[in-house]
């Protein structure tokens, strides 16, 4: 198993390099460079001054040299300066947003899990029951409704008309502190969290149902029941352990979907996370920020896939590695 | 059109209906038979046909122009003239809903078609030839899948700056071929070792012919199912990108463009009739396509029904 994990990590490294090359390639394909922002902000300065600075910064170097310089500074968290936000550093901008996105993602994953897994299990144990049909129906609806439309509807009914939840932002005001701030944060995350988690909930529910059904139909469950094991024990000791494996793997691979969803959801709720920063940067053609976020999200997905693989190998000892 | 009896007789007499019945049914026909028994799927097909027809025959249902602006009629509530009111630039919402459906469906369909072309081409190359070709294509697919689809698409759209419908469709196809390619390659790998392929090779059939006549027909099930589900997801992607302002540029009406009006709090709050209908339109269209996709999956792979 350790051999497998090490080999998996070794595959991770070239993938990471490939990712950086793509992001660098996109950055080079984009118009403008690190000085364009300053040049636009201060057009009176003689263009030659910028040419000299470009030379000094190595922007006229051969592409491989530039790539290496970019990579080594990116590895140290230096993504250059934003072209738009008065030359604030990209790292600083991202730092101010990344925690919000993380909270939102975890919160929505939490909702997804506590809703999808119990319902999926119930559906599988009592197939063709009323709740099973309701869950199947919900699965179809959840996958067909665009999450931003769901978000708009949630804002319209639950925030504007009923006033139960705030429609946007993360905090009601600067005065809130301590535990009240925590509650307030959660309160602000309810609608975006549900919106972001909707499609995932539908997906996990279907998966969970079919996995549990699969396991329940297997011979070792029949044996366990024949031994006189109680239903509870069969469920917790045998069924869930095996049925959860694909779910955990799915979670690792679904990180990309979650992050893509977060970009749209944050925009609907004007939630100050990486998604809104990404969209405003794309709108303003603020390429250093765009590239940094692309790179970070790509790395997160790679790590998600890696962890899913490793976790899979730990939780399921049946898997043999050649 | 009635075929000329003489012609039918002279060219292919063996294909007359009598002889055909004696033959066993082809897998495709069997699948179609199973599909037609699935009520939800058949209802969805009818429903989708109705949606497509209403969008195509839009001029029959409204005499308003979807792009013409009327600055005296901005954000009007529904009236007899404007059934769903007007938007922020005084365009008729109902006309935009119908004409927008054309664009949304067209984008979904052509992006699906384009992705299918790339996917079948690359999947066939990888699955048929294997070896180096296979590993190059599959590594490229792995790399493409590393980036969140939406982020990659948005970055490319930002770089290209000037987006038209063909460019938009191309971007979607170019960023989303890996999944389909993987599926097709997987199907091919299991076919490759079978005897009838060996037989075809032995009688000297050329690669192209083997792919066209043996591989693709045998992989048609997964291809059709995935193409259907892809079209549904592309309709959502178009609407999501248009919603955040990076899809088909205004004033071209699309369902996503109509929904983007709801980013304005005033319209969101006071004019639900402007943004709820396009949202529902996307929702029911995607729902219908998904039902069809599920029906096709069950039809092509009866074993999957047990789940």
UniProtKB/TrEMBL annotation, chain A:
Main location: membrane
InterPro entries (alphabetical): BPD_transp_1_N, MetI-like, MetI-like_sf
Gene3D superfamilies: MetI-like
Keyword terms of this UniProt record: Cell membrane, Membrane, Transmembrane, Transmembrane helix, Transport
Location(s) in or outside the cell: Cell membrane
Residue span, ABC transmembrane type-1 domain: 98-308
Membrane found in the keyword field: yes
Pfam families reported for this sequence: BPD_transp_1 (PF00528), BPD_transp_1_N (PF19300)
GO biological process: transmembrane transport
Ranges that cross the membrane: 102-121, 133-166, 186-205, 243-269, 289-312
Membrane topology: Multi-pass membrane protein
Example of a GO cellular component annotation carried by this entry: plasma membrane
Family in the record: Belongs to the binding-protein-dependent transport system permease family.
Name this protein carries in UniProt: Peptide/nickel transport system permease protein
The organism's taxonomic lineage, starting at the top: Bacteria, Bacillati, Bacillota, Bacilli, Bacillales
From TrEMBL, chain B:
Bilayer topology annotation: Multi-pass membrane protein
Sequence ranges assigned to domain ABC transmembrane type-1 in this UniProt record: 101-293
Transmembrane regions: 40-61, 103-128, 140-159, 165-184, 215-237, 274-293
Keywords assigned: Cell membrane, Membrane, Transmembrane, Transmembrane helix, Transport
Entry's Gene Ontology cellular component terms: plasma membrane
Localization in the cell: Cell membrane
Cited Gene3D superfamilies: MetI-like
A GO BP annotation: transmembrane transport
Region (Disordered): 1-25
PROSITE patterns from the UniProt entry: ABC_TM1 (PS50928)
Protein family membership: Belongs to the binding-protein-dependent transport system permease family.
Protein name per Swiss-Prot or TrEMBL: Peptide/nickel transport system permease protein
Organism of this sequence: Oceanobacillus limi
């Amino acid at each position: 198993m350790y051999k497998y994990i090490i080999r998996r990590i070794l595959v991770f490294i070239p993938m990471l390099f490939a990712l950086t090359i793509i992001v660098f390639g996109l950055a080079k394909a984009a118009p403008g460079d690190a000085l364009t922002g300053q040049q636009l902000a201060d057009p009176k300065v003689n263009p030659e001054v910028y040419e000299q600075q470009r030379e000094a910064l190595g922007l006229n170097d051969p592409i491989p040299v530039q790539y290496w310089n970019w990579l080594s500074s990116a590895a140290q968290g230096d993504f250059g300066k934003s072209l738009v936000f008065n030359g604030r550093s990209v790292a600083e901008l991202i730092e101010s947003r990344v925690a919000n996105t993380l909270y939102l993602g975890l919160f929505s994953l939490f909702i997804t899990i506590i809703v999808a897994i119990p319902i999926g299990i119930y559906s599988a144990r009592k197939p063709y029951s009323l709740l099973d049909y309701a869950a199947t129906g919900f699965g179809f609806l959840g996958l067909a409704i665009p999450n931003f439309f769901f978000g708009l509807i949630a804002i319209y009914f639950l925030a504007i008309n009923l006033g139960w939840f705030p429609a946007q932002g993360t905090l009601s005001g600067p005065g809130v502190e301590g535990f009240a701030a925590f509650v307030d944060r959660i309160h602000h995350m309810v609608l975006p969290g549900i919106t972001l988690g909707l499609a995932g909930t539908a997906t996990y529910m279907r998966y969970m149902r079919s996995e549990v059904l699969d396991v329940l139909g297997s011979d070792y469950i029949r044996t366990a029941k024949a031994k006189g094991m109680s239903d509870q024990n069969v469920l917790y000791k045998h069924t869930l352990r095996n049925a959860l494996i694909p779910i955990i793997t799915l979670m690792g691979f679904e990180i990309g979907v979650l992050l893509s969803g977060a970009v749209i959801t944050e925009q609907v709720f004007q939630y100050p996370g990486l998604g809104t920063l990404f969209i405003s940067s794309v709108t303003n053609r603020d390429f250093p920020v765009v590239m940094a976020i692309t790179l970070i999200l790509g790395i997160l997905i790679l790590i998600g896939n890696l962890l899913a693989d490793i976790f899979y190998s730990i939780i399921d000892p049946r898997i043999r590695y050649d | 059109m009635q075929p000329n009896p003489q012609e039918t007789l002279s060219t292919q007499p063996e294909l007359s209906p009598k002889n055909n019945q004696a033959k066993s049914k082809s897998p495709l026909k069997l699948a179609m038979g199973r599909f037609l028994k699935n009520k939800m799927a058949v209802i969805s097909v009818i429903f989708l046909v109705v949606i497509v027809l209403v969008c195509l025959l839009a001029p029959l249902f409204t005499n308003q122009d979807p792009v013409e602006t009327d600055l005296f009629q901005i954000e009007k509530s529904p009236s007899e003239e404007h059934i769903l009111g007007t938007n922020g630039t005084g365009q008729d919402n109902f006309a935009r809903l119908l004409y927008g459906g054309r664009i949304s469906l067209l984008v979904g369909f052509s992006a699906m078609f384009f992705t299918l072309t790339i996917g079948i081409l690359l999947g066939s190359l990888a699955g048929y030839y294997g070896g180096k070709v296979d590993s190059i294509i599959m590594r490229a697919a792995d790399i493409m899948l590393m980036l969140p689809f939406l982020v990659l698409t948005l970055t490319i759209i930002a770089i290209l700056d000037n987006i038209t419908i063909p460019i938009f469709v191309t971007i979607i196809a170019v960023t989303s071929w890996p999944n389909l390619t993987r599926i097709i390659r997987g199907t091919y790998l299991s076919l490759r070792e079978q005897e009838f392929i060996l037989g075809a090779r032995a009688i000297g059939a050329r690669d192209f012919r083997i792919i066209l006549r043996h591989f693709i027909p045998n992989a048609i099930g997964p291809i059709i199912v995935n193409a259907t589900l892809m079209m549904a997801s592309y309709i959502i992607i178009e609407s999501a990108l248009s919603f955040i302002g990076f899809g088909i540029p205004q004033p071209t009406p699309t369902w996503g463009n109509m929904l983007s009006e709801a980013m304005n709090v005033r319209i969101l709050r006071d004019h639900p009739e402007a943004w709820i209908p396009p949202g529902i339109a996307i929702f029911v269209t995607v729902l219908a396509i998904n039902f069809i996709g599920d029906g096709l999956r069950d039809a092509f792979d009866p074993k999957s029904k047990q789940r």
